[in-house]
Design goal:
By secondary structure, the protein is of the alpha+beta class. The chain has one domain (7-114): Threonyl-tRNA Synthetase, Chain A, domain 2. 41% of the residues lie in helices and 23% in strands. It has three helices and four strands. The chain has helices at residues 7-26, 52-59, 63-89, and strands at 32-38, 41-47, 93-101, 106-113. Strands 1-2-4-3 form a four-stranded antiparallel beta sheet, covered by helices on one side. Helix 1 (7-26) crosses helix 3 (63-89) and helix 2 (52-59) runs antiparallel to helix 3. The longest helix is centred in the middle third of the chain and has 27 residues, at 63-89. The radius of gyration is 19 Å and the shape is elongated. The mean pLDDT is 88.
Length: 135
């Protein structure tokens, strides 16, 4: 019998799978991915989202080119991100909004879901039994 995931399980799974997607598709290792499920929305922050080639171009003052390249890469990976999110949360993605800041090398995303995913309350998990003291 399948049990519903907790909010924390969904957030961890999204973080791990997004890191793997960027590593496999772009050959880029994000330093951290933070995901927070907020009812029918998901907030995602990608740390160190600027790739080495993009950073090299930025260091040469080609920020406009880097912004265009970063935006194009984001657009190219977006369909795979939507599919990944839908697989993890079990709900259709209505919209995925994304923006990046080169200065901090962060990308922020807001995902709008068709409905709130079904979750198991983390507190409903049976608590481990304390050992009975021996007399």
């Amino acid at each position: 019998m399948d049990t519903l995931p907790t909010k924390g399980q969904i957030e961890r799974s999204l973080s791990q799978r997004i890191q793997a997607l960027y590593r496999n598709q772009l050959g880029h290792r994000l330093s951290q991915v933070d995901c927070e499920l907020l009812e029918t929305k998901i907030a995602i922050v990608l740390e160190q989202s600027v790739t080495q080639p993009e950073q090299l171009l930025a260091d040469q003052g080609k920020n406009e080119l880097v912004e265009t390249l970063h935006s194009e890469l984001g657009d190219a990976i977006q369909p795979q991100l939507k599919t990944l999110i839908e697989e993890v949360v079990g709900v259709a993605v209505v919209d995925l909004l994304s923006d990046s800041t080169l200065e901090t090398a962060r990308t922020g995303m807001i995902v709008i879901l068709a409905e709130a995913p079904k979750l198991r309350d983390a507190a409903s998990k049976p608590a481990p039994q304390a050992p009975t003291p021996v007399k």
